[in-house]
Design a protein that fits this description.
Layout lengths: L1 H12 L1 H5 L6 H14 L21 H13 L3 H26 L2 H13 L1 H4 L11 H18 L2 H14 L4 H22 L5 H11 L1 H9 L3 H10 L12 H20 L3 H21 L3 H17 L14 H15 L4 H16 L1
């Protein structure tokens, strides 16, 4: 069944790659020029693409990932598109692993199916863009997070730290608040279950994964550090400029809703229904549910929203791209739970058919 899901996911993603008819704009051109500098001009990079804040950059791992197909194809972006397709397919498998490892094989298959048909997840194979690498990486973060919650061992905790650090190389606007949200949830769980919480080791691993950015900052008179200090002191403007804080909060809330709405289905009416029942079911489980694993997953978007309340500018779609895997995993868990009753099985089949036909 997993193979069938992979085949389905491949054909839903591969149209642009197989046809060679994919989006290529100035951002893609800028990135490939940077990759050319690494491969052809032999100039190593310490930073990746710029962000919406002055002098703040993504990490350089994205460029080095692109460098491999760039070198093999002598700069032909069509081979790089195969890398993007592979990254999108890997996300399906990691989602399956999360479900199978921590819940059941059936849950894993349902999650894999949702990843395969999700328009948000499928979009990661449509053009070359660094935030698309967040999808498998954030799924991997959730895998290690649940592994640590389940047994309290240090290994998944340290692997979680490394995975979070790698996120900074692809979309810092998501990775920074996501890391803070996950770290706070880990601290709460450590207090509740009396787990060891090696914060210093966690921080050391993060610093190691971010060492190219730190070295760049050191070599350029702490340019990024000064920009961040200026931002937190109110002197630096993000994308979108400043607005009334009440409007900022409202816009953040709407952006989170739109992000959830875009996860499962493209058709507007069905997307609204899915979003409504997802929110209702999630809140209900937070009140009466028993699984700490599920409750922890449900708390992440809430904590992320709280962290984003400190960001007084507009949130763009890619700032929340890493929530797609979280919603798909939760959706797979709750969708599979419908199969416990005969009428739930009917609803389960209806949902599957709707998703396939969308």
């Amino acid at each position: 069944m997993l193979i069938v899901i992979f085949i389905l996911g491949f054909f839903l993603r591969a149209q642009e790659t197989l046809s060679g008819n994919f989006l290529f704009l100035k951002d893609q051109g800028r990135d490939l020029l940077a990759v050319k500098s690494i491969v052809v001009d032999k100039k190593p990079a310490l930073i990746g693409p710029y962000t919406g804040l002055q002098a703040v950059f993504q990490g350089p791992l994205y460029y080095y990932m692109l460098a491999v197909p760039f070198a093999l194809s002598r700069g032909d972006p069509r081979l790089i598109m195969w890398l993007m397709l592979t990254v999108s397919m890997v996300a399906i498998y990691v989602g399956y692993l999360v479900g199978k490892t921590f819940f059941s094989a059936e849950v894993g298959l349902v999650i894999a199916f949702l990843f395969a048909v999700s328009p948000a997840a499928s979009a990661a194979a449509t053009f070359i863009w660094s935030p698309f690498f967040v999808l498998p990486l954030s799924s991997l973060c959730l895998y290690f997070l649940l592994g640590w919650i389940k047994n309290g061992h240090k290994k998944p905790f340290f692997l979680l730290a490394g995975s979070l650090g790698l996120l900074f190389h692809f979309e810092i606007a998501f990775s920074l608040p996501f890391t803070l949200a996950v770290l706070f949830i880990c601290w709460l769980i450590a207090q509740k279950k009396r787990y060891a919480f090696p914060a210093f080791s966690f921080l050391a691993i993060l610093v190691l994964t971010l060492s190219p950015l730190i070295l760049f900052d050191f070599r350029h008179d702490f340019l990024t550090t000064k920009s961040l200090l200026k931002f937190f002191s109110g002197g630096n403007q993000g994308l979108g400029g400043s607005e009334l804080y009440s409007k900022v909060v409202y816009d953040h809330f709407v952006r989170f809703l739109l992000n959830l709405k875009a996860t499962f289905i493209a058709e507007n009416t069905f997307a609204e229904v899915f979003s409504f029942f997802t929110i209702l079911g999630g809140l209900g489980y937070l009140v009466s549910g028993r699984s700490l694993l599920i409750k922890s997953l449900l708390c992440i978007p809430i904590m992320l929203f709280v962290v984003y309340l400190t960001y007084p500018f507009q949130i763009w779609d890619w700032y929340l791209i890493g929530l797609f895997p979280l919603y798909l995993i939760l959706g797979g868990i709750f969708l599979n739970s419908l199969r416990k009753t005969w009428y739930g099985k009917i609803l389960f089949v209806v949902v599957i058919l709707v998703l396939l036909s969308s």
